[in-house]
Structure formats: C-alpha cells, structure tokens
Amino acid sequence: MPRKFIPLIAISLILVSLEGAFLNISAFKIENSRTDTIFNEETLNIESKDKINHKDKDKEKLKDEKSSDKFLDLEAGFTDDDDLERFGGLEFNFKKSKHLRTFRNFDLNSADKQALKSVKSNKNAITSGKGIWVNIWNYPKNVDAFIDRLTDYHIDTVYLQVNRSTTEVFRHQVQIDEILKACKKADIKIIGWSYAYLHDVKADADKFIKPALYVSPEGYSFDAMAADIEENYKVESVKRYTELIKAAVPEDYPLIAIVFSPQIKPVYPWEYIAGNWDILMPMVYWHGIKQRDSQRVATFVADSIHNLRKYTKKDDLNIHMITDGERTTPDEVAISLEVAHKLKVNSGISVYPEHLVPNSILEVIKEFKA
Description:
Elements: H1 6-64, E1 91-94, E2 101-104, H2 110-118, E3 130-134, H3 143-152, E4 157-164, H4 173-185, E5 189-196, H5 201-212, E6 224-229, H6 235-248, E7 255-260, H7 270-276, E8 279-283, H8 294-312, E9 321-324, H9 330-342, E10 349-352, H10 359-367
Parallel strand pairs: 3-4, 3-10, 4-5, 5-6, 6-7, 7-8, 9-10
Antiparallel strand pairs: 1-2
Helix pairs in contact: 5-6, 8-9, 9-10
C-alpha cells in the first residue's frame, strides 16, 4: 500500500471510532432518559396508590373518630379532588391583610343563582349576629371573665347547653342562673340547647319545653331554645318530638334545630325539619378532613350550604352556620365565614366550642361583618 494512503486510512479509522463513541454516548443518554421517565411514572403511580390507600385509611379512621357528642361518617365522602364544578371553582386571593380573603371566579351555575335570589335577609332572627357555644362539661369557671371575653370580641349570643337525654332538666342549675343573669346584664342573648337522643321522645321534649318556659328566681329567662338532633333522627321520632314541643310553647316561639352538615349526613329528615322548625343550624365542622388546605375547606363549607338548601327543598331557608373552632386555624375560620357570606347564610354565625376556641379565632369572628 502506498504510504500516501496511510494517513487517510488512519484519519478514517479515528473518525469511525469517534462516531462509535458518539453513538454510544447518545444511546446511553437516551436509555437513561427513558429510565428516568419510567422511574418518574412509576413513582407517580406509587404515590397515587399511596394516596388512595392513605385516603381509604383516613376514611376508616374518620368513621371511628368520636368527639364528645358526635362522630363523622363519610356517606358523602371526602376526596383529594373535590369537585368544584358546582360553584365554578372557588379560588382565593391571599392578601397581605391578616385573615382577609377575597373570591375570584366565583361563578355559580344557573340553579344556584336562582336559589340565592330566593334567600331573604333574616336579621330579625333570634340567632342573628355572632355567637359562641358552651357545652355541658365546660361551663365557665369565672363568669365575669367569660362575659368580658365575649364583650372584647363582639360576641352577642351565648348558646348554653342545659341538658342532654341522660341528665336532669337543668344539669347545672346554680351556674345556669348565674350565666343567665350575667348575659342579660351585659345585653348578650342567651339561647339554651338540649342534646336529644329521642329514645324517650316525651322525656326529651320535656327537657326542651321546661327550659324554654323557665324563669330564674331573679326573673331571667332564655331568649330561645335549640334542639340538637343527631342521634335518633327517624322521621317519626322527630315528628313526635316536634309536635310535643309545639303543643307546649307559645305559637310564635322560635324553634331552632341543630343539624348535621349534609356533607356528613345526607340521609336525614331534611324536608320535615325544614318545614317545621324556624331556623336550621348546620354544624359545619371540617377538622376531620385530613391533608386539607384552604380550597378544601372552602369547598366543604360551600357544599354544606348548597346541599342544605337542596335536601330541604327550601331555597329561602333560615340558616345559621356553626363554624369549626376545634383543631382549626384562624385562616380556615375566615374562609368559612366568607363562604357563608357569599352564599347568603342569613341567620347569623357562631363558633363551637368556647373552651377550645383561641382568641386568634375570636379575632376573626370579631372582624367578620355579619
């Protein structure tokens, strides 16, 4: 072979080697790229399965989770992809102002718009304004300090539990008389409430009627009574209970029913109660929702109010929302109140329970324009 061809052959061999190396590197990159893609997809699938499993576990846990008087059962269900279609999507614009939230894209569908046109303001309702709830196990130890706290945070109504099916008519007679007197002197409304099991309907009716008609030795009485109906809610029991109460109290006496959020208990005598009780007070408690964020709180509250009107078949229903003060945050409470305002909750708002509600949440209640 002539020597003049040797350099050319050498250069060709070098080029072939370089091309092979380049192809190997490219193949390596492509293969690794594919591997990364597969890994990511598998990871997402695993994470998705984990979320589903975690969600199922949460549901089971929530079904067993009990508070002092109630438990959550997820007949309606909570999911990580709560459907906002009904409300066109609730989005919050978080401003620098403390707890302030404003809606964007709050676009109701035609059915909701029509329903809200029927909602009337009910500022004359006995439950209007801002309230706080005291249960039977946690009466204030210092009534003067209790009243001062309510005054400081512009709370105008106390909801005081006076009994339950397993107690006498007045569980804390002396304290009840003391709190009645203190509230009246401070110009704070006081509404009693009874937790009714409705196993002995007549006895439970008496535990509503006697406090409703009660006058203390110093001449003070409750402004109204509310019935907490969340144990036996068979329509025949609720009907008998209602009839006994109506027969015993004055005709114009306001009948107030404490009810579930429809998201917790869709199967309930909604139509009967809405047709026979003047004001419904849904317990809109979201603290059992795991891995929640502001959007899920807003959705839960909005769906609760929407479905309350839907299930009762009463667009102009008088609604007082009991918001969640247990294991929640000021931001969440602020969101719940704004949703209530946007959806025209028309008979006041309140927070449960007083002994667990921090002042930071009461500050939100104070700022809220009811």
